[in-house]
Amino acid sequence: MEVQVIGNVEAYSTISVKAQVGGQLTEVHFAEGDFVKKGDLLFVIDPRPLQAAVDQAVANLKRDEATIGQAEANLARDSAQARYAESQAARYADLFKNGIISRDQSEQLRANADATAQAVSADKAAIESARANIGASTAAVENARVQLSYTKITSPIDGRTGNLSVKQGNVVTPNTLELVTINQVQPIYVTFGVPEAQLPAIKKYMAEHSLQVRARPQDDANAEEEIGSLTFVDNSVDVTTGTIKLKGTFPNPGRKLWPGQFVRVTLRLTTQNNALVVPNEAVQTGQNGPYVYVVKQDRTVEQRPVVTGARVDQDMVIDQGVTPGETVVTQGQLRLVPGSHVVLPGGRGGGRGGKGKKG
């Protein structure tokens, strides 16, 4: 059982390449229409201004690292002085209690010890500030390096490049004009719509096995078909057309399918073994439904109602009404009535088709 419709080829993925930093476009490493691989270098934007920004950020980081070193040395010095001042203040306090020195001398040493302790606290705060500055400077270095990396633009996918929008030597601005579009064509999608009446059968057979999709160019009936599989069923029916959107994925090894191309699509739902088929033109439609003219042994015809099945290319499956080996009329049915004589092609006594001749 097959469904035949017209479909449209779509790129598997489409990437619009834009500059993330501004500057002069100094290098272009591909020609329009080239196939590129993921990671291939496409463009180079003048890196000198951003390299200078990286150098400046690195210098600021080294300055902050030196600052924290100085702050830690100051803390060590002031901590030693604070310990000495504290011990001296305690010793003089005992001398004051024993009446050996005056209150003024004792209080002066206590004040000196307190001032030294405050200097230690200030040194610790300076170290914390220097550490914060180092964190900010490290982030600035990383950001500058990221910005510098944007001066080399590589391909994010395997695909074919399109029209080059900006030529080498021009100045580009970030995130505005696209430089080039890349279409991934291996694999590739073929999008098509089928009548909503086919949806139950599609869902049924998809649950049983992967459904094969074949496609060939619309204007070349003799072209070799590309083989793919059904990978997408839309989540709603188009109410304006009564169809549902499907997608087949094709490996496209020879790149014969091209984005935007119209193709003849055949969706195979199931395979009916030992099916009996007749040419499409043999089946006629009357008031009581489809029928065919069957040629009997005496070369007269019999009108026989049939139950038709799926259409397969130029043939029609007959579920009931005709048995294997019988000959059916494929031309001139309008001139026939039951009992008419027919002329078989080439005067042969058997075959699939006969030509009607009223007699």
**Cα separation of the termini:** 38 Å
Question: What is the approximate shape?
Answer: elongated
How many discrete domains?
A: 3
Give me the oligomer status: single chain
**H and E string:** EEEEHHEEEEHEEEEEEEEEEEEE
Largest sheet: 6 strands, antiparallel, barrel
- The number of strands is 21
* Low-pLDDT stretches: 347-359
Adjacency order of strands in the biggest sheet:
1-8-11-10-9-12
In round numbers, the mean pLDDT is: 85
Strand content: 35-45%
Q: Tally the helices: what do you get?
A: 3
Radius of gyration: 43 Å
Query: Which structural class is indicated by helix and strand composition?
Result: alpha+beta
Report helical residue fraction: 25-40%
List strands and helices in order, with pairings:
Elements (H helix, E strand, L loop, with lengths): L1 E17 L4 E6 L6 E2 L4 E5 L2 H50 L5 H47 L2 E3 L4 E3 L9 E2 L5 E18 L3 H10 L3 E6 L8 E13 L4 E8 L11 E7 L8 E3 L4 E3 L2 E7 L5 E5 L1 E6 L2 E6 L6 E5 L10 E2 L9 E4 L3
Parallel strand pairs: 19-21
Antiparallel strand pairs: 1-8, 1-12, 2-4, 2-7, 3-6, 4-5, 6-8, 8-11, 9-10, 9-12, 10-11, 13-18, 14-15, 15-16, 15-19, 17-18, 20-21
Helix pairs in contact: 1-2
